Predict the structure.
Amino acid sequence: MLSPQQQQQFAREGYLVLPGFKPAAEVAQLLQRTHEILAATEAQDIGGSFGTQDPGGFWNRWFLDSDVRVRCFFEEEALDAQGRLNRPVPLAVNKIGHALHDLDPVFERFSHGPALAELAADLGLQEPQVWQSMLICKQPGIGGEVRWHQDATYLHCEHGAVIGFWFALEDADTDNGCLWVEPGGHHGPLRERFVREGYQTRLERLDETPWPDAGRARPLPCEAGSLVVFHGLLPHASQANRSGRSRFAYTLHASDARSGYARSNWIQRDASLPVRGFAAR
Ligand code: FE2
């Protein structure tokens, strides 16, 4: 799947962009299913908004119990001061997570199969475990900024790292909030670690290394169907979407079974919904 040059680039820079990884028909099917879920969701079904500016505020039961469910989260700017929606639900949802890949048949098909299994093996995941999935809407006009972070903060491994799989379902560019990364930044330390104990959570500061400034940050504009894979320690971010175009993307996060996936991570699986790899059923 990956050439030796691509594998070297992943090791050196911490990410790879793979244009055209998903055929247009599969992307269209996933978008259609996403719009069906959004259309079927009532405002009162949604128990919390999602924003990264206030890391303490949204880690509530609505969020924590979404580890083995499919739940929607509002954009912060879709709610007024009284908490009322200021637009229809399909334009107000920030994301859907976090077990789409196991619970929804259309997402399940998109998230598994030989191409992903082969790619994961090439990235060093000999026995992959896919912990979470997110459909990120990045709505036109109000799609919120995602501050600089490392995914290993939320899905920590004691010896190894989670890998993010970021599928562009629509064209992403600097106007509608594409991904930004710090090339090579995965060689740096883990800054923060998110720890869960029951329904108590805390964000521990581990290292004071600053986030990349404009000179070190690189935007990753890409077309629908592209896949960006990146190392769990790679600093990345995205800006608010103030354009008139949405920027739907779908993400999966996987680690190797031998990498010591931390017991303190907020997502754990048991026999009721076992963690799986990328192999199709
Ligand atoms: Fe992330």
